[in-house]
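pasting for ref
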Amino acid sequence: MTSETAHKLNKTIIPTAPLPDPIAQTIDAVIALQTQSEKNLSSHQRILEGITAFFGRPVFLYCTLLVLVLWVIPNLLSPRFGLPLFDPPPFQWLDVLLGGGSFLMTIGVLIAQKRQEKLSEQRAQLSLQLNLLSEQKIAKIIALLEELRQDLPNVKNRLDHEAEVMKQAADPEAVMNALEETLILELADLQRDAKEKAS
């Protein structure tokens, strides 16, 4: 028995159950969002993002270091062998090359980041919509449970103030306004504390 055959026999297969419909639909929606974003990507944007992705790999660092070494060492050793210098110290051409490369890399990274931010905003919007929908569903479930509790003859009928409040779905605008007001108050407190410490 070869080691490859033994490895295949020892490989554990984990059975997976099919996902419930709502979860599968959510996954499909996220995949569709990503797929649509990739389909709408122009060829020059795709090339630019491929190049930008290369900047983040270790091989790019090694290539850059190799170019620097191959640029600096021959320029430093050329006078010993009587060879002409193509960029004598302080390496002005190397500075221009590195500055231009850095400029182009920065623009490439910013362009790729902008698209990623747009995708993140779309995902955040989808997540917000799903959270609001979930909140409404939870409120409905609580309301149905309260109705069921009141209808059951062997359960003591009592008023549950917390359940009454939770039966109502939250108003997103009211939540946003409350968050903004709280944030403004906290920022004002921080600024006041900073002024008190400074004086």
